[in-house]
Amino acid sequence: MKITTYSHDETLAFGKRLGQCFEPGDIVLLFGDLGAGKTTLTQGLCLGLGLAEDDYIRSPTFTLVNEYQGTATIYHIDLYRLDSLREIGALGLEETLFSNGVSIIEWAEKLFPKSNPEQSAPAMGIEKRIEIHISIEEETQRTFQIELVNQSQRTLPL
User: Fold this and answer.
1) What's the pTM value of the predicted model, to 2 decimals?
2) Could you tell me whether strands 73-78 and 102-106 are parallel, antiparallel, or unpaired per DSSP bridges?
3) Which of these, 39, 45, 128, 144, has the minimum number of CB atoms within 10 Å of its CB?
4) Where do the structural domains in the chain lie, given as residue ranges?
5) pLDDT tens figures, 57-73
6) Which fold has domain 2-149?
7) CA distance 52 to 136
8) How far is CA 144 from CA 26, 115, 120, 134, in A?
9) Sheet of strand 65-69: strand arrangement
10) CB neighbours of residue 94 within 10 Å
């Protein structure tokens, strides 16, 4: 599925609609360059998951994981500052990822081996996942390519 937004507000609204489709246990991998809109999309996803409009959702670049309470627990994970799969593995995120919460991971590229990222599964045994690849088309235009991986019976009713 591919969706294009043309402003910050459209990205938030799209994220909110998409977040309403998520279920406890979902793992969402966000891919995209710096400034692509990963945090803006995450803000919308959290709103769709029931987080209050006035809750402040920020990128956990330095804390690595922020936890929010919506209709399910939301784990917002940022891998930007990590340089290797070994560093990621040392965080002990498995309990968080495979809980009844929804995990949203920014900089998900870092979960894949650098030697052959397109032919590999992500680290930590993440098999079932929602991958969202974000492309910058113009200053405010973003394209979101969404793929459900290993979830053949599921669709996202957007």
Assistant:
1) 0.91
2) parallel
3) 128
4) 2-149
5) 877 766 789 999 999 99
6) Rossmann fold (3.40.50)
7) 28
8) 18, 25, 22, 5
9) 2-5, 142-149, 129-136, 27-31, 102-106, 73-78, 65-69
10) 12
